[in-house]
Design a protein that fits this description.
Largest sheet of chain A: 5 strands, parallel
CATH superfamily of the largest domain in chain B: Nitrogenase molybdenum iron protein domain
Number of strands of chain A: 13
CATH architecture of the largest domain in chain A: 3-Layer(aba) Sandwich
Largest sheet of chain B: 6 strands, parallel
Number of helices of chain A: 23
Strand content of chain B: 5-15%
Oligomer: heterodimer
Radius of gyration of chain B: 23 Å
Structural class of chain B: alpha/beta
Chain lengths: ~475, ~475
């Protein structure tokens, strides 16, 4: 197997910027983050999946997947990341290796020709080339092919080493970040720079969430030099090294990039979130503070405070009307990481009760935040689908907030459900996003459909009762 | 007669294909109490699962042997064993269907022998039926994976020998991957109308039809029962739908002697006639009045709808059997198939498609040809939406996956009634924007151009080049 890949993975496991790593002993760190998966009891995406998630939002690039069919064929055009311009990223492009290619060792030649074809056809600013399991196993040298193609064709070709068997989706995110740092960032100088240029890491513009944030930053005069990688253009990312401050959002998956930006280019970073009202304010405040420390005008601080005061007041005011519908409604928050606490205050403000919040991927810091926020915090780990179903069926919650994987557990128990993870079609970032979330909750909980479908069928009751109004199980 | 064309390509852009193991997984999901298991890396099953859920809007079991870097070097037999035992212990399935993936097949191991040895040693698996199909991604597509899994099920689980002990009223239906739950329900009702009990394999109408159970079930709930599979030899006949089901039908006939008939398609008046004549023949019963009425309704629908379909230019992209079925349906109503793209070259039916050529390719091939030929409608699965958007065309969603429409598993296109409702759906798409005429519609500059294209095309057809 590529020693290159092993070295990369080992480096990521030693990442000093990662809070999980810091809390480990040296021996534990050596073992790495990758737990061996249990055959027959595994769930979740692979490293290739994670790498693609992290890089696909680069809208003007071609994303070429080198491997047999299924890796790209079963996954393309699947995520709801939005673009304000180019649509090249939506193409599903793969070398679709045949048995003959594999047996005859034609993979490298085929890959080179594929790169040539897509460059001729789309003239993209760059081609990202993803290595998958089979080419990694048979030893296709995609670094060499990319180097050769870039020279010959004059288009940057970026090798992304994240074959599925290397590990989890999260590891894939990090490997993608490593590819950006090694091959992209710092290769282009921006036309102009300003004292308020920032980089946002780990924001993918799902359902257009970046556009709930960008106007706030613009009002403050803060320029997003590069968002990695939401609604991104290749050249923007290539200029990211000229930013003044880096904000790492979304579960710190790209923390390795942030730390290296600091190490090589002296750009300070912080971890923040645009989910939740107070978190959005904290993020804006920290951004302003760090920018001023790096030479932006002091006035930014006051402008930020004014904007925060205005936006927070407006958000709370817009949430208030939903209180009657949401008051005392019981929520299970089944997500993890930052979201296990970042939306808690908005839900509580709307009058809801958090029955449980999951801390599956949360750090100790996340857990401390939960304890600070909630009077009687009920933190749970991973809940098997069967138990979750039983809990909902018993009526222990009025609504489940989770990702797509648990959607049907709730719906089949005839309990309202709201998607708050990556497949969602609603934008929940910033102040507007939280108001949107509360509105969605109210819409779901007040829908008469729940009462209707929980009513027993006519043949499940005596004839006298059959026509009576609904009796809910809860 | 169509010419089969395979363009030489280095990259597939916007794939039309769905992977071979995915086809096998769907077939396995049509068994009651089933858990499909991919022998491969975790991502292989994760992507397939996500895609399946996007299409059916249903949760489904799909497990993985979780091959990691070490196993790609040292071999995956231990993972396979551990996975089988874990799935049996945790999910208590009656049936585990194993499908191999490109990763593990590239390494190359003797999987059937591995399974035999595992089953001999691990008594935890004594009460679980385990079936294996070899389905590497680099060979074939959705239909091939489905067909291989069904053949493997038949070869492993059917009790051999003809045993027509019961009343002689059972009929087997080997459903193709392009049959929806709605199709299967319709076929079962048609068989019942002739006093026949249909055993459908695989039966997605039981497992993935969208239903709410009283209890939680980690394996499939509904689908073909294992006892019914064992007893397939009790039937008077087997109906197989689509050319890709021929090997499975032949395997079943070889094992049990039950005569089989392959129907290339069941959509359209003539195919429906053939089905009904067959059912009447094997049951020895008259065609019931209700079915006669359905035929009359279909004939009337064809009369009403042909105005809107005649002369329309259609671009089709689908797996071979669905492509043939759709092309025959559209051509039968006077539409012209101006582009036909399919996923594999295996099917002998492809040359029968009423088009000049059938291209083995991707959605970009379809998009380019649809654009050049001035198609008015693109007929393919949901991934065709990008092409339809760029060309400004209507998009009729058929096949797998359909992730941006609801209730697709209940759409039936078979028999008189299915054809009728499908025909109305199509005609309404054209009728929806028939609009009011404006003076520009009659501008002289446009008329000759339109006629020129038409005569060009007609000439090309007659020249037969």
């Amino acid at each position: 197997m590529a020693s290159n890949l092993n070295a990369k993975v080992a480096e990521l496991f030693n990442e000093p910027g990662c809070a999980t790593n810091r809390s480990k002993s040296e021996g534990e760190r050596k073992k790495g983050c990758a737990k061996r998966l249990t055959p027959g009891a595994a769930a979740g995406g692979c490293a290739f999946d994670g790498a693609k998630i992290a890089l696909q939002p680069i809208t003007d690039a071609v994303h070429l997947v080198h491997g047999p069919f299924a890796c790209e064929g079963n996954s393309w055009d699947g995520r709801n990341v939005a673009t304000s311009g180019p649509k090249t990223y939506r193409l599903g492009v793969t070398t679709d290796l045949s048995e003959l290619d594999i047996v005859m060792g034609n993979g490298e030649k085929r890959l080179y020709r594929a790169i040539k074809d897509v460059v001729a056809r789309y003239d993209p600013p760059a081609v990202f080339v993803y290595e998958t399991c089979v080419p990694a196993m048979i030893g296709d040298d995609i670094d060499a092919v990319c180097r050769h193609a870039a020279e010959k064709l004059g288009t940057p070709c970026i090798p992304v080493h994240a074959p599925g068997f290397a590990g989890s989706k999260n590891l894939g995110n990090k490997l993608a970040g490593a590819a950006l740092f090694d091959h992209v960032i710092g290769t282009v100088e921006p036309e102009t720079t300003t004292p308020t240029d920032i980089v946002i890491l780990g924001e993918y513009n799902l359902s257009g969430e970046l556009w709930q944030i960008r106007p706030l930053l613009e009002q403050l005069g803060i320029r997003v030099l590069a968002c990695i990688t939401g609604d991104a253009r290749y050249r923007e990312i290539a200029t990211a090294h000229r930013a003044r401050v880096t904000m790492v959002s979304c579960s710190a998956a790209l923390i390795n990039v942030a730390r290296k930006l600091e190490e090589r280019w002296g750009i300070p970073y912080f971890e923040g979130s645009f989910y939740g009202i107070s978190d959005t304010s904290t993020a804006l405040r920290t951004l302003a503070k760090l920018l001023v420390e790096r030479g932006a005008s002091e006035g930014l601080l006051a402008r930020t405070e004014a904007l925060i005061a205005e936006e927070e007041a407006r958000a709370w005011q817009r949430i208030a009307p939903y209180r009657p519908v949401l008051k005392d409604k019981r929520v299970i928050l089944y997500t993890g990481g930052v979201k296990s606490w970042s939306i808690v205050s908005a839900l509580q403000e709307a009058g809801m009760k958090i029955v449980a919040t999951s801390v599956r991927k949360s750090t100790d810091e996340d857990k401390a935040r939960i304890e600070a926020l909630m009077e009687d915090p009920h933190m749970v780990g991973s809940v098997p689908a069967r138990e979750m179903y039983a809990q909902l069926k018993r009526g222990e919650a009025d609504i489940l907030l989770s990702g797509g994987k648990t959607q049907f557990v709730a719906l089949k128990a005839k309990v309202p459900w709201l998607d708050i993870n990556q497949e969602r079609h609603q934008a929940y970032a910033g102040y507007d996003g939280m108001v949107n979330l509360v509105a969605e909750l109210a819409k779901s909980l007040s829908n008469p459909v729940w009462e209707d479908i929980r009513r027993p069928a006519p043949w499940e009751k005596g004839p006298a009762e059959a026509g009576e109004p609904a009796v809910t199980e809860a | 007669m169509a010419r089969l064309v395979t363009p030489r390509k280095n990259a597939s852009i916007n794939p039309l294909k769905t992977s071979t193991p995915m086809g096998a997984a769907l077939a396995y999901l049509g068994i009651d109490g089933a858990v499909p298991l991919f022998h491969g890396a975790q991502g292989c099953s994760s992507f397939a699962l996500t895609l399946g859920v996007r299409h059916f809007k249903e949760d489904m079991p799909l497990q993985t042997t979780a091959i990691g870097e070490v196993e790609t070097v040292l071999g995956g037999a231990e993972n396979l064993e551990e996975a089988l035992v874990n799935v049996a212990g945790r999910m208590k399935p009656k049936f585990i269907g194993v499908a191999s993936t490109a990763l593990i097949e590239t390494r190359g191991e003797d999987f059937p022998a591995d399974i035999v040895s595992i089953l001999r040693r691990r008594h935890e698996l004594d009460r679980t039926a385990v079936v294996f199909a070899s389905t590497p991604d680099f060979s074939g597509a959705l239909e091939d994976g489905w067909a291989k899994a069904v053949t493997a099920i038949i070869e492993s689980l059917v009790v051999p020998g003809e045993r027509r002990a019961k009343a002689g009223t059972q009929i087997n239906i080997l459903a193709g991957v392009h049959q929806t739950a709605g199709d299967i329900d319709a076929l079962r009702d048609l068989a019942a109308a002739f006093g026949l009990r249909a055993v459908v394999l695989p039966d997605l109408s039981g497992s993935l039809d969208g239903h709410v159970n009283a209890e939680f079930s980690p394996a499939t709930s509904g689908g073909t029962a294992l006892e019914d599979i064992a007893d397939l030899g009790e039937a008077v006949a087997t109906i197989a739908i689509g050319e890709h089901m021929r090997p499975a039908a032949e395997a079943l006939e070889g094992l049990t002697g039950v005569p089989s008939r392959v129907f290339a398609t069941l959509t359209g008046l003539q195919p429906a006639d053939e089905l009904i004549a067959f059912l009447a023949d094997i049951s020895g019963r008259e065609v019931p009045a209700s079915i006669r009425r359905q035929r009359s309704q279909l004939v009337d629908a064809m009369l009403d709808c042909h105005f809107y379909l005649g002369g329309r230019k259609i671009a089709l992209g689908a797996d071979p059997d669905l492509l043939y079925s759709m092309s025959a349906f559209f051509a039968g109503l006077g539409a012209k198939i101006v582009a036909a793209v399919t996923t594999t070259s295996h099917s002998p039916l492809l040359v029968e498609v009423p088009a000049e050529e059938v291209v083995v390719g991707d959605l970009m091939d379809l998009e380019e040809r649809a654009g050049e030929a001035g198609a008015g409608l693109i007929v393919t699965h949901s991934h065709g939406r990008q092409a339809a958007e760029r060309l400004g065309l209507k998009h009729l969603r058929v096949g797998f996956p359909i992730f941006d429409r609801l209730g697709v598993q209940h759409r039936a296109t078979v028999g008189y009634a299915g054809t009728r409702s499908f025909l109305y759906e199509v005609a309404n798409m054209f009728l929806a924007d028939i609009g009011e005429k404006t003076p520009e519609d009659f501008a002289s500059s446009r008329v000759p151009e339109f006629q020129l294209q038409e005569s060009d095309h007609a000439g090309a057809t007659f020249a037969g080049h």
